[in-house]
Amino acid sequence: MSTTKVVYWGTGRRKTSVARVRVVPGNGTVTINGRPGDNYLNYNPAYLAAVKAPLQTLGLGAEYDILVNVRGGGLTGQADAIKQGAARALCELSPDNRKPLKTEGHLSRDPRAKERRKYGLKKARKAPQFSKR
Predict the structure, then answer these.
(1) Is the distance from CB of 80 to CB of 110 less than 8 angstroms?
(2) Which helix (H) or strand (E) holds 14?
């Protein structure tokens, strides 16, 4: 007889970061790329709060562990990608979780990303200095 472990998956994206998030029953620990969450996020309380926000919204902070593989981008993008992935995983847990997560904005992807550089310009919008003569 095989023992099946309950695992809920979710994928989150932000800027160039992609996070694959697993939510499993546990005691509320966050593990990111094999490291403790607070260590990976440089003990930044804003990043930790963003990662745990979906669980806090549902009042499940100490009931589930978050296991994450994340690639690309910086810590801000990665933290927001983890937040979205965790929210999607919690929607798999129960369809009733979707409404409170949606109202808090945890399920929507932030579309802002770096704007591409255009030819004839120095950066995306910065033009070279204009010379009249």
Answers:
(1) yes
(2) strand 8-14
**Cα Dmax for the chain:** 85
Do residues 9 and 105 lie in contact, with contact meaning Cβ atoms separated by under 8 Å? no
Mean pLDDT of the residues in the chain:
91
Domains and their CATH numbers in the chain: 8-104 (3.30.230.10)
Q: In this predicted structure, what is the pLDDT of residue 61?
A: 81
Q: How many helices (H) and strands (E) does the chain have?
A: 4, 5
Strand ranges across the sheet with 17-25: 8-14, 17-25, 64-71, 30-32, 35-36
For the question of whether the overall pTM of this predicted structure is more than 0.90, the answer is no
Yes or no: say if 41 and 68 are a contact pair by the CB < 8 Å rule. no
